[in-house]
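Hello Y.,

Per our agreement to keep a running log of every chain we model this quarter, I'm adding this entry. I've kept the format consistent with earlier entries: sequence first, then predicted structure.
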Amino acid sequence: MSRFAAPLPVHSAVHSPLPVHVMNLVIQSPASLPAVHHKPLLALARGSRLAPIDEFAIRIEGAVPAQRGDLDVYCGTHQLDYAFVEAGRELADFGLVAMDMDSTLITIECIDEIADFCGLKAEVAAITEASMRGEIKDFNESLTRRVALLKGLDASALERVYEKRLQLSPGATQMLAGAKAAGLKTLLVSGGFTFFTERLKERLGLDYTRANTLEIVDGKLTGRVIGEIVNADVKARTLVETCAQLGIEPRRAIAIGDGSNDLKMMAEAGLSVAFRAKPVVREAASVAFNFVGLDGLLRLF
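Predicted structure for the entry above:
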């Protein structure tokens, strides 16, 4: 499924070889983790000792990362997430957690829900899905196409999406609280829209946001975006610039995302987390959470 490396050098790929360190294996379940799994997992990991973290997770010390194939099968079958973590690593070793918004911090794709108000959700959602899977290589083109379909829609639809449809992903509140308690700053960087990122910034006490601005004239969407489009390159640049502002190296950042638009940002970070992500993102990330919530990040350390 994934691996957890020590923070990587700046500009290195997220799938660089693991350094030689003592590794722990953290295994998590979205529900209580039955003790019946303990012995098989200890054997599969070839670890030296198993210790409970809480009712949802265990840590196996001295695990052998080479055993991923068998773990993939076992954990996938039983809907468990696993990650190799360098022994002694702490959340406070990082200084920033950068998150995608749509289908990561929140459960919806805002543009798809906005399109529902003009009867075009299926058409827009198909473009969104292809873009996030990496099948449409030009994010700017895909966003421009989707936004153009919203032309003439009453801007009140944005408020309705926020109030009625936007929900935080499982574990989001706990993850943010834990990150802040450990001294990390928070960045929400999205290929979505400032209408939503700014409200979430105020609601959740986020430190930084970056997103696209929808043009609104006379209370109607014009079908255009104002200014630079937040694509994969801009996301990566925003993470690097935010780290510079904080006086830390990008290797001390954690990046969380789900789509191909997040890959460059994730490659800049020392730890990348694929959250219920597309296959191309799961393959590239340091850690993949397919079943647990965002608070799974806290149990890694």
